[in-house]
Amino acid sequence: MSNSDTMDRLRSGLIVSCQAPATSPLHDPAVITAIAQACVNQGAVGLRLDTPAHIRAVRQALPQIPIIGLWKQTLPGSSVYITPQFCHAEAVAAAGADIVAVDCTLRDRPGGERVEEIMARIQSQLGKWVMADVDTLEAAVLADAAGADYIGTTLFGYTEATAGLQPPGFELLRQIIAQTNRPAICEGGISSPSMARRSLGLGAFAVVVGTAITGIDAQVQAYSQAIRHPA
């Protein structure tokens, strides 16, 4: 699938993040593939997947669906965990992702790698597009200058710089649209169809929904805790 075809298919659509905690029985390539197939059957135009194993399994089952791939890794000396190094991006690309998602916050990366260099190598050496996962406008502007193909609000509320802020980052989305030249993807904290529609109405290129659709572990935990400990 060409990059232009990928962009056309994702435009103004729903991308579902099909992920599960590593400790969950759902964290199995066959299960993630079934979840992904169910999402596509009901209208998802793209998928966001973690780990090369899950990307590879879903790519085999759904050869035509656009995939945003990443690899979450917790490494010493850095709080960056979404595709932190080029070797992780390389594995994600080899597994079949069309777009590689990379943490593009201003935090130091493990191994002293620079995000600008990682992005450039993904595009030039691997022939893939880059989704820059950011938390602030400053990070988005730098990602734009570095040549990111898409910019996502993914990490708003999940970093030291945005601690205490509650996603979704609608205001950050507005700022990215106004002050960068890249398609802005709204991701993080979208918990209802009306919120997804709102993000597109604000000008988002596409919207990613994860936990509200596929986060069985987190959803059941929330219900269970609310029942056991009512306010």
TrEMBL record:
Q: Which Pfam families match?
A: NanE
Q: What is its EC number?
A: 5.1.3.9
The residue stretches assigned to a coiled coil in this entry are none
Q: Give the keywords, sorted.
A: Carbohydrate metabolism, Isomerase
* Gene3D superfamilies registered for this protein in UniProt: Aldolase class I
Q: In which pathway does it act?
A: Amino-sugar metabolism; N-acetylneuraminate degradation; D-fructose 6-phosphate from N-acetylneuraminate: step 3/5
One of this protein's GO BP terms?
Answer: carbohydrate metabolic process
Provide the Gene Ontology terms for cellular component: cytosol
Which SUPFAM superfamilies does the entry link to? Ribulose-phoshate binding barrel (SSF51366)
Superkingdom of source: Bacteria
Recorded catalytic reaction(s): these are: an N-acyl-D-glucosamine 6-phosphate = an N-acyl-D-mannosamine 6-phosphate
Q: What class of enzyme is it?
A: isomerase
What InterPro entries does its record include? Aldolase_TIM, NanE, RibuloseP-bd_barrel
Q: Which GO terms describe its molecular function?
A: N-acylglucosamine-6-phosphate 2-epimerase activity
Q: What does this protein do?
A: Converts N-acetylmannosamine-6-phosphate (ManNAc-6-P) to N-acetylglucosamine-6-phosphate (GlcNAc-6-P).
Give the family per the record: Belongs to the NanE family.
PANTHER family annotated for this entry? N-ACETYLMANNOSAMINE-6-PHOSPHATE 2-EPIMERASE-RELATED
Its name, as the record gives it, is: Putative N-acetylmannosamine-6-phosphate 2-epimerase
Which organism does this sequence originate in? Prochlorothrix hollandica PCC 9006 = CALU 1027
